[in-house]
Amino acid sequence: MSDTKPTLLWLRRDLRLSDHPAWVAALEGGGPVIPVFIHDGAVEALGAAPKWRLGLALGKMVQTLEARGSRLILRRGNALDVLRDLLAETGAEAVHWSRLYDPDAIERDTGVKAALKEDGVQTGSHIGHLMFEPWTVETKDGGYYKVYTPMWRSVKDRGVAAPLKALDDLRPPKNWPASDALVDWHMGAGMNRGAEVCLSYQIVGEEAAQDRLAWFMDGPINDYNTARDRPGIDGTSGLAENLALGEISPAQCWHAGQRALHDGAGGAEPWIKELVWREFAYHLIYHTPRIATRNWREGWDAFPWNEDGATPEVMAWKQGRTGIRFVDAAMRQMYVTGKMHNRARMIVASYLTKHLMTHWRVGQAWFDQHLTDWDIASNAMGWQWAAGSGPDASPYFRIFNPETQLVKFDAKGNYTAAWIVEGHNAPSETALSYFDAVPRSWGLSPDDAYPRSPIVGLSEGRQRALDAYRDRSF
Fold it and tell me: Which domains are delineated in the chain?
């Protein structure tokens, strides 16, 4: 292509300037590069919290690019139509993007690539969202891994390309196409009053993500193996939201973890394993797309789960008023921060799917709406792991006891004190914030009494689940 013709860079979940193969490839075309983000059907379908968080990321990217003499062109519509319009308006002859791996993204991107090639447009898709692309990781028989540990063993000693340096010259065009205003997209509309409460808990943008990684590597990673299970302390990297939107790359995290491992950090390998757990989730959603919407283990299709998300028991779960303090604290943390500690996620998912005998899809859909670190593959796999219907799943007979888990991992009560008002003479600000974040229609107040007894008792719920499991063969 001519070195005077622009190239379009279609940004999606890769909102950064460093370690960005697609951006580097666009610059190698020789001409100006026009970064573009498209508000298409995939964006429109996002839940309230992840859409709002994406809006924050886009706002930060707009500021970053403008400070560097570039811009982010925002357009709304069908992705192929928008790209064709921009190609015509700018005279661009190529489009580059970073690959995504969920079924809807693959269908869209495959169609876009085929159509643009038919139009005579040069296209390039590049790695960036994962370290190990799904088709490059195979069992000895040439299949895909259905269990995490063998996959970990197969990739742990693989080389991961060193992260690419931050871009110096963004090579902006002299003339820019028109752009929508981000404010007109109303990305936070679904959050209502919750947005103001959640905002201070978000780590937004590439610079903030890199600072958080540096903080974690500077000390907390040493204790990660034990601290990660204690929800009452800040013992994890907290980078899930940034990885989900590509504000930091998994390769950057991998190499930082490897340096820490080399330096003797005790928690480095467990943390690196969590990066591969994320890869495993995408490995599965690529090879078995059904995991996003259906039971991965088909033998679970006839299991008698409740699928009504509005029963009194499920509503108590949603509102953080089950009478089970670990579950309630976790749900309230999600409304205030947009996030939930990983140990807590296992507890709330187990309680919903096992004690309340409610389909994992009900919980998955609720998390889809309320997590600012939402990730389609990790959320789907996590829920099916907890429910027992997924690959590498927790055995169906493993039913977490939230009370013993709380004693084990929050012995001093820091977590519940941080998120539950009831029963405290001087409740924490974080706990009080819950009542400012949740819908007014719930009619909840700090003056409400805490439930006297669990909505479903632990022994009762456990036995009911076990009885249902014994009636079926898995």
Answer: 7-127 (3.40.50.620), 130-160+193-287 (1.25.40.80), 298-470 (1.10.579.10)
